Amino acid sequence: MTSAGFIGGDWGTTRLRLFLCDRDGGVLARRDGPGVADAGERAAEIFAELTAGWDAALPAILCGMVGSTIGWREAAYLPCPVAADAIAQGALRFAAATRDIAIIPGLSCRNAIGLFDVMRGEETQILGALRLKQELAQGRHLFCLPGTHAKWVLVEDGHVAHFQTALSGELFALLSAHSVLARGAGAVDGDHPAFAEGLGLARKQTQAGLLHLLFSTRSRQLAGEIPKAAAASYLSGLVIGEDVAAALRLFGGHARVTLVCAPELAALYAKALAAHGVGSDTITGEDTALAGLAFVHQALLGA
Predict the structure, then answer these.
(1) pLDDT at 166
(2) Which domain range does residue 257 map to?
(3) pTM for this structure?
């Protein structure tokens, strides 16, 4: 039987995923819990409850909002550019009862337009992607981590050079649920022609910009040009299309982009990238998070 090597934890705002892992990051058991927004000051207590029965001598490597101002302990942001090993060595380390805890730091930078930007949690997925596909640690590569706050990350020879945050996921969620544009329209279908129409408009209408395109989600329904059932797909095409188009302008010169997310979301971004003639490869977010946690564990073992 494979023996446990460490506990890995992806502790975000809304959920906690704890993994009992072997030394290489293989999952032996999993337990879920509340995110840091609900855990509050009970973070240490919740962690102890969920890890009860697991070897008390095993170290724990945690990433995500657990290291934020609303988390268990605050792990400072490391400024970019920063190497993978430096991220691991920058972990905040402390003891909780008999267990050694390490919280992976977030990253900060001046992004492509000169504004201060931060990430917390995505850095671990980048570390994992570099571990899973070691060829990405050489040369210049663009990563996209779609989500509530999508991150576009430039990695050069294994160093996170800088990154850019797009509010694409949160914007779509707000508009589809709380505006007249696509409320009650159902799920996004990336194969529906309306999604492709949204992508096309975002790619071609660069003078208009997203704010001047969004209302067409409503007006085109009234004109009978798109059915209400396809409104969410059209809106998603506009938002993702603008996200991708702007990122390619900011990080130009890339023939391929590595997508780190769930396959369903990756398929939407792959279509948007393909419309610009850019290829893509996908690594699932959970796989990269686990690989990143394992990378940090092994790096700290050798410290």
Answers:
(1) 98
(2) 166-283
(3) 0.94
